[in-house]
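Notebook entry, structure prediction.
Reason for the run: the old model in the group folder had no record of what sequence produced it. Starting over properly, with the input documented here first.
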Amino acid sequence: QAVIAAVVSLPLGFVKMWALSFCGWLSICTISFGATSAWAERQVAQPGTPEFNVAVKVASSLLMGSTVVFIIAGSALPFLVG
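New structure, fully documented this time:
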């Protein structure tokens, strides 16, 4: 049986940029989830109550809103760099 090995040629610095991007996204996700958790806890609602459900929905909306802002800012970067 013949084994065919595929050679992948990555651009110079690709792995470093990928690692930095991964770390950046991970830190933003961590901060976002931490902030939304703090928001839900700040509402002083007990789990299982309607007030808690509202707090979770508001916190989830904040998380989604921050994601949209982050994507828009990321897509604007090429125009800012020139």
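Summary: The radius of gyration is 20 Å.
The old model has been moved to the deprecated folder.
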